[in-house]
Write a structure and sequence with these properties.
CATH topology of the largest domain: Nucleoside Triphosphate Pyrophosphohydrolase
Number of strands: 14
Distance between the termini: 86 Å
Order of helices and strands: EEEEHEEEHHEEEEHEEEHH
Helix content: 10-25%
CATH superfamily of the largest domain: Nucleoside Triphosphate Pyrophosphohydrolase
Shape: elongated
Radius of gyration: 25 Å
Structural class: alpha+beta
Number of domains: 2
Strand content: over 45%
Length: about 290
């Protein structure tokens, strides 16, 4: 009696979450006659890097250009009595699963590869997957059970710069969190950089002026989860060091940084902030309350 042929397949997939939705690919009738959705991805070509493979597969199955994480989780499934192409085989599937994301404003997903293993691609509510309302492969369930948002902690330095009854603020662009709101000038502290030096650099980059940094006024932190401007779903913790600062009276601040996280610079009356006329980040309200 002939032994069952052994088949081993190494494939790469990605969990791509956007707010409360997940990107999935529907297996074509060539694979199963039943409705079944799975993670976008597929088999590695001989000699292909897994990260290159999953990015290629995502594009073929969804038409989207994705970015994936540097690290991955590995899952193994041994199916000794699987059916492949009308015959029984002893199958072993090794699945490498990355976290992935696509840029905001990306088009709706569509299948690019013709006559492949995918017949449809779409965003689906995570709730429908977790509740079992949507038929998904065991890999989706297994990967989601282990999935955690990317954790990012950011230390930043900001300046409270006053001119009479006005404060210097910068407006957050669509490339930053809280877009459209006005915030204190400042930004992230680089590794090994003094917070005061970071603030001087950030005010120069954002407002085109040289600042003189005073004492630390207060701390402000916020912790939330959501889709970052770059498209990655993050568990974000921001720690803001807020210093008092001065800028030369004879130089008018102006927008210097283009295509960054700031799209406007202005002196804003405190009265407009307190009345709610000007939408501001919570850190602005906080520092005005404690000073």
């Amino acid at each position: 009696m002939a032994s069952t042929p052994k088949r081993q397949r190494v494939a790469a997939y990605a969990v791509i979450v956007r707010d409360d939705q997940i990107l999935l690919s529907r297996l074509s009738p060539l694979v199963t006659q039943e409705e079944l959705w799975t993670l976008p991805g597929g088999g590695l070509d001989h000699g292909e890097d897994p990260r290159d493979a999953v990015i290629r597969e995502i594009h073929e199955e969804t038409g989207l250009d994705a970015t994936v994480s540097d690290t991955a989780r590995v899952y193994s499934a041994h199916l000794p009595s699987a059916w492949r192409n009308g015959r029984r085989v002893d199958a072993h599937a090794v699945r490498i699963v990355y976290d992935g994301w696509v840029a905001p404003g990306s088009p709706e997903p569509r299948v690019v590869e013709v006559d492949g293993s995918t017949s449809e691609a779409a965003w689906h509510p995570l709730a429908s997957v977790l509740s079992g309302a949507l038929p998904v492969s065991p890999l989706v369930v297994e990967a989601l059970a282990d999935h955690r948002p990317f954790r990012l902690q950011r230390v930043a330095a900001y300046g409270l710069v006053r001119r009479g009854e006005e404060v210097l603020l910068t407006r957050v662009s669509s490339r930053g969190y809280h877009s459209g709101r006005w915030s204190l000038p400042g930004g992230g502290v680089r590794h090994g950089e003094r917070p005061q030096d970071a603030l001087v650099r950030e005010i120069r980059e954002e407002c085109g002026v040289e600042a003189r940094v005073g004492p630390l006024v207060t701390l402000f932190d916020e912790h939330f989860s959501g889709t970052a401007p770059r498209g990655r779903f993050e568990d974000f913790h921001s720690i803001a060091l807020i210093f008092s600062a001065d800028v030369p009276a004879d130089v008018e601040p102006r927008l210097v940084e283009l295509d960054g996280t700031t799209d406007a610079v202005a002196w804003i009356p405190v009265a407009d902030i307190e009345s709610g006329t000007v939408p501001v980040h919570d850190a602005v309200t906080h520092v005005l309350e404690v000073t």
